Amino acid sequence: MWLPVEPGSNRCEVDDKNLVNDSAYEAGWVVPSGHLNRMKLIVGLGNPGRIYAHNRHNVGVRCLNCFARLHSIRLDRRQCRAKVGLGEVGGKDLLLARPGTFMNLSGSSVACLVHKRSIPLSNLLVIYDDLDLPLGKIRLRQSGGSGGHRGINSIISALASQDFPRIRVGIGRPQAAQQPVSEDAIVSYVLTDFSLREEAMIRPVIVKVAEAIDSFLMQGIEAAMSKFN
Question: Could you confirm whether 57 is annotated as catalytic?
Answer without folding.
Answer: yes
